[in-house]
Description:
A: 2-methylcitrate dehydratase PrpD; 50% helix; 8% strand; B: 452 residues; two-stranded antiparallel sheet; 10 strands
Amino acid sequence: MPGYDLIIRSPLKGPLVHDGQHGKKSATRVLAEYATSIEWNNLPPEVMEHSRRILLDTIGVTLGGSAESEATALAHRLGRPDGKPSTLIGHRLRASPLNAALTNGTAACWMDFDSGHRPPPGKPLLPAAHPPIHLIPAALAMAEAKASSGKELLAALVVGYDAGARIGMASRVRAEIHCHGTHHNVAAGVAAAHIMKYSTEQMESTIGLAAHLALMPSFENAYQGGTVRNTYAGVGAAAGILAAELALIGFIPEKDALGSVYGEVISPWFDPDRLVDDLGKRFEITQGFIKLYPMCRFGHPAIEATQKLIQQYPLSPDEIERVEVHTFDWAATLNERNPKTDLAAKFSVPWAVACILVRRSAGPDEFRTQALEDKEVRAVAGRVAVREDPRYSAMTPFKRPARVSVHTKNGKVFQAEVERSSGGPDAPIPREKVIEKFRLLADPVLGLKQSTAVVEKVMHLEEEPDIRELTRLIVPTHI
Amino acid sequence: MSGEKPVINDYLDRLVDLATSISLERTPSTVVREGKRTLIDTAGTILNGMANVQVQALAKKMAEASISPYSTILGSNLMADAMWAAFSHGTAGVWHEFETGNRFIEGSPALYSISAGLPVAERERISGKRLLETLIAGYEVGARVGLATTLRPGIDPHGSWPIVAGAVTAGLLSGTDLRKTINLVTSLNLASSSHAAPEGATIRNVYAGFGSAMGVLAADLAKDGFSAERNGVTTIFGTIAGVFFDFEKALEEIGDRWEIERSFYKPYACSRHIHPALDGLIAILRNRELHPNDIERIEVFTYGMASSLNRILPQNPLSARFSIPYTLAAYLVAKDVGVSAHQEEALHNPEIQELSTKIIVQEDQEINGRTPHERPARVRFYLKGGELLEQSVELPRGEFDHQPLSDEELNAKFLKLASETVRRQQAEALLDRLWHIELASDIREVMTSGRL
């Protein structure tokens, strides 16, 4: 095998790579002890609230994505009308936990409307990542198979979220790698193992095995609109289930699997101390953000700046000569003026800004394939320039500003600026806003009555002894 | 960051053209014969892997998880979704480290093509002739991507570029856009750590299963309308999993030289990098009868990759299959090079354990310079009486250009391996069907012989 000799002599195995130890125990062991010991009743109320909101939000974006033709084809390939324990969300189809995790994870990612985790500001800067679309498809599918209670599912989400998010904070996945399907496979595995009531040893194995099933997918697919990118999270969710199953059979991971995979193969370093820092005191699920617009999070400040501008100066599209967006470095890369697929539109600030200017909205309808035919939006998007403002870049990650300047045909310039977009821990949104977003996505699929029932059920899920009382509600019952 | 990457050249079109042009009528008969030989050898290793209880438990899970169980899991009585049958096959196929490979690419495209190809062909009711053509195609394209790829240090090829071989075979069998299927599968590559095998982490066997399944999934996704970036191969194998993608190497002598004809077949159930040293040791013992007690110490000089396989006390069978000291000691004590040489019972043999501490493995710079065209090892015995015996080996047995395994030897290996799982008579029938696979109008006729 190539690499064995290189490894032994490689400088990578030098001081940068930790031996995986945290004090006397390995960090993986500490994480496994935490993941097996947490119970719902001992969690702080705000952690409980976050877990309910993130579950609702993820079900909503999965329902929204499930109707896409590719996601529907996949559901029909991997599911059948009856006889299997797990629900394919949004379809009258059922599947094994493995197939359900793959299908639902793919649908959950489709709209790019899913919630994410933002590591706290600090050095080095760490990118946001998306635990829920891995974690929830895996946990929900497994919880159905085990007929778990609402409390068991929600507690699994809390510990799984911590596992994935903390690996993200303890490493730095190389920039050209898309983070879906990478460290949150471990989030999915831990959640599944929690639902399966694993021992600490089995949990420890699951963590290592899930790490070994990390993908190394490209970010380029997102930029080019390659929809295989939507399967990364689905495959990652399935990998989490697989890892839990493999642990039960007795498959063995490397002793320091996290160090190898996240400290060598897909990231240049891994710091086990960060993995377990304040574990059980600080719950990463509370550091999540909920997206209000179905596009890459970096573009949200530009959307909100444009909304602010339009509220002050209700310009009509005909008046607009050109638009300049100044924003921070990462957001400034989302500069495609002519997105060719719905996925490419989700990575285009010009498209999002043009949607606000023309349609006064940047919701799900603005990012569907049909919307790409809107000539008026296309015309304006073609005149939006996106530039980095180095002062803004220097303010990240504490602030993520954007400034929008609209130049009108009669020579005037209108401007608006925001420091950050809403939905994150630094600019929280009320529960009603999360429910409103859910309704927007769920009502068309489930109908008003059933959609309301889902909200009610999730918001009181800890009282539900059988999770299947929720999952029977997340498929359309009307024809 | 948006916008198109420059199209390097038409290398991918040419690989796709090669894959789609392969037919038993037009392709050289020696290539077709090698296609059958890789199929037979791989089917044998898969059947053999299925004798392991963990692989059986995994296959059972895979069958339970399946929705459209139209595909046989070889060596079992189970049917599964094509993707999950491929997963089981890939995992079983590497279990005893006995699978065919190719010394120029450090990987086994045959395993991925076959693991993925059999279930898809069965699902799609494809003829034996067409299956054989697509297996050869998958091997060629996968191997050429492998030739062009220099993986990052720390990455095991299992689950990495060989996934392309499985995707090509599955894509051709399901009739998908092949270029798209190839670009699509690349992002489903695994971050497979290369520490796993020597450490005895059995997840390493799953890399091959997972990678085979991703070949099937990619073809299915392509059929269901999923899309991919234009140059997934160079993005993934040139920048993400690899450090450099040499597309000229991918096209080297294309159409004239067939990578499948450069395959090796393993005579011993352990890492290929151990074979040169083992051949050296066997040659010494052929001329001289020695007892372990006669030996003061043994020194092995070999190339870098092989010299890193120097663990003294491997903790489990997988780890033992990646240990030169253990494998050589086991041969000296038990004269065994088959699967049983590395099984749990043998690991605890105190005689083997003691002898393995006397075997020292060293890297030799002069030898390094001779790879990959040669895979040399020099074995030196220091006997207790002060006598010194030495044997050099340029290439191990089983290479296409050095002591190749004959059809009879391959048949014997197949029958021995397959008989661990199925009855001898059934193994013989299956072997006969595989040698005449082009006569099967529906591959299901063949697969029934591979069921329990």
